[in-house]
């Protein structure tokens, strides 16, 4: 399964973060139910001012909650996630990035445990 990263800006609710929690749990549940795996979830800021105002679902947004999610899933499920994000009124902006498909692209190669000195050759 390919590794993907989701960058998302959700609509800010100053009263309660339950909308953001509901959005994140819905996305991760959809990934898990399809046999995928969520590797990491990182909060990038709550209630950050957007560089420019964004219009989404006939509402102007000036602030947003930013997060990234790193997950493994199939391209078919990714298309379903994209449709879910498009229809969800909590989502202001999102972007999926493919990080890699093969193991050598996903994990960095560690340095060798034995270093050879070329001067003795």
From TrEMBL:
Pfam families registered for this protein in UniProt: Ribosomal_S6 (PF01250)
CDD domains on file: bS6_mito
Molecular function GO labels: rRNA binding; structural constituent of ribosome
Matches recorded under Gene3D superfamilies: 3.30.70.60
One Gene Ontology cellular component: ribosome
Domain of life: Eukaryota
InterPro entries listed in its UniProt record: Ribosomal_bS6, Ribosomal_bS6_sf, Transl_elong_EF1B/ribsomal_bS6
Example GO biological process: translation
Protein family per UniProt: Belongs to the bacterial ribosomal protein bS6 family.
Name of the featured protein: Ribosomal protein S6
Organism: Naematelia encephala
């Amino acid at each position: 399964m390919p590794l993907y990263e989701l960058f998302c800006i959700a609509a800010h609710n100053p009263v309660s973060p339950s909308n953001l929690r509901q959005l994140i749990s819905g996305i991760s549940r959809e990934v898990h139910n399809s046999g995928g795996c969520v590797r990491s979830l990182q909060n990038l800021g709550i209630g950050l001012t957007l560089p420019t105002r964004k219009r989404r679902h006939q509402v102007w947004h000036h602030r947003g909650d930013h997060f990234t999610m790193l997950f493994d899933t199939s391209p078919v499920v990714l298309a379903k996630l994209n449709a879910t994000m498009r229809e969800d009124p909590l989502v202001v902006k999102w972007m999926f990035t493919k990080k890699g498909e093969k193991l050598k692209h996903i994990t960095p190669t560690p340095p060798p445990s034995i270093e050879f000195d070329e001067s003795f050759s």
